[in-house]
Amino acid sequence: MIIVIADDLTGAAELGGIGLRYNLRVEIANQIGVAFSTETDLLVININTRSMIEAAMEQLSRALKWIEQLPYSFLFKKVDSVLRGHVTAEINMQLVNTHMKRALLLPANPRLGRIIKNGKYYVQGQEIHETHFSKDPEFPIKNADVLHMLGAGEEVQVMAWRDIFPEEGIVVGEVLTEEDVEKWIQLVPDDVLLAGGSSAFIAFLTQKIAGQGFQKEDASDTFSGFNRPCLYVCGSNYEKSVQRVQAWRMANEPVCYLPIVQPGEKMNGQLLNNWIERVKAAIACHQKAIVAFDNEGLRGLSLTPCFLREQMAQAVHNLLNEVFVRELVIEGGATADAILAQRHITQLKPLEELGPGVIRCNMHKDPEIWITLKPGSYSWFIL
After folding, report:
1. CATH code, residues 230-374
2. Degrees (nearest 5) of the Cα angle 220, 214, 363?
3. Which of 14, 33, 144, 235 could make an S-S bridge to 357, C-beta 3.0–4.6 Å?
């Protein structure tokens, strides 16, 4: 069994979807210690530490203690492709707990135009701090230097795959092409902890399970649309996601913006009930609804991402107690995790990879309801 530790839910789902390409039996654990099938080939554990501050290391420590008891053949650390979160701290803790001295970090994703060249991170040819990632609400990136992005100390260095791998510390691999990723995976010593994004995991699976009866398949190209009724929750602050919701609203799609309250205030019961009734009416009429925050209304307000996603999660939880949906589509990993926590959903079974990073799952406790998870910065969508 392969185990992946992911720091957010959409990242966990993304690697679960990649496992489906190889016909692996995949489960996602959204809570430490949950039971899973003994026939599982790939167990992806979402520890949800990316948005944590003080509790992140404690959460990772709990996950590693659980993993020590599990029968696995390989452990992979999933990190954000643009290095948001507590990347070096988590890798260092994992090195200590697994009694290893060195790690290879491959976050770059050339398929999305995300590369590392001469120690700097580029997105579609631009230095990353010149892109929308500079406006990330939790981890704004203001410098393209990879070591600066990581807040790294002397234990971290950026290298090319042709260089001699050091005896200890963390190596960030320079990557310009998918072939570079493949070379890194091919040449990395066996006693090195592997961490990275989806490109690194694809290369790992391609090289490590070849010849074991697993056949690689492409993401589904036959998907014709979600079941109805469908609820689409946009919790992403990514600019293109916000613009997409605005375009849907201008096209008279059933967009229902969630009312905004100030921190310390509880949403007025009548205000929430009115919103729920609007969403229920949209679903009754159109068999679908789109819920999001009106970002124009958020301008000038000092509202943290944590506060907003908890408001969204609570509102969606109340809504789902009153209306039945067959499909729940959630954009944004932290929002998805908050909603699943409210619904006490601790396990997901990925069944379809609709596009890179867009994974359709069902629940163990209610397999008739589908949940699709999508990172905000990925472009695929259909409604």
Report:
1. 3.40.980.20
2. 55
3. 14
Least confident range of 24-28, 84-88, 112-116, 331-335: 331-335
Strands 347-355 and 169-173: unpaired
Structure tokens at 313: 């999660």
Structure token pair of residue 218 = 């492409």
CA pair distance 42, 304, nearest whole angstrom: 35
Q: Which residues, in sequence order, are CB contacts of 363 under 8 Å at separation 6+? A: 345, 347, 348, 349, 369, 371
The CA distance from 332 to 378, in Å, is 10
Q: Is 318 helix (H, G, I), strand (E, B) or coil?
A: helix
**Using an 8 Å Cβ cutoff, are 63 and 32 in contact?**
yes
Spell out the domain ranges in the chain: 2-208, 230-374
- CATH number for the segment(s) 2-208: 3.40.50.10840
Backbone torsions φ then ψ of 45, nearest 5 degrees: -105, 115
Do 152 and 143 meet the contact criterion of CB atoms below 8 Å apart? no
What's the mean pLDDT in 243-250? 88
Average pLDDT, rounded, for the chain: 89
Rg (CA), the chain: 21
Helix (H) or strand (E) holding 102: strand 102-106
CB 366 within 8 A of CB 323: no
User: Which residue, 285, 381, 281, 288, is CA-closest to 326?
Assistant: 288
